Amino acid sequence: MTGPTAGVGRTALLVAAARAIESQLPDALARDPYAAAFVRAAPGTAHWPLHPDRIPDRVSDPLWGRLGGYFALRTRVLDDHLLAATRAGARQVVLLGAGLDSRALRLPWPSGRTVHELDTAGVLAFKHRVLERVGAVPRAGRRPLAIDLRGAWTTALLDSGFDPGEPTAWLAEGLLLYLPAAAEQGLIAAVDRLSAPGSTLAFETKDISAEPDRVLRGPLYTALRERLGLDLPALFAPGPRPDSAGALRARGWKVRVRTPYEFTALHGRGPLPEPDDALAANRWTFATAVRGTPGRPGAEDHRRGRGGRDVGDSPDDIPATG
Ligand code: SAM
Question: What is the CATH number of the domain that holds 168?
Answer without folding.
Answer: 3.40.50.150
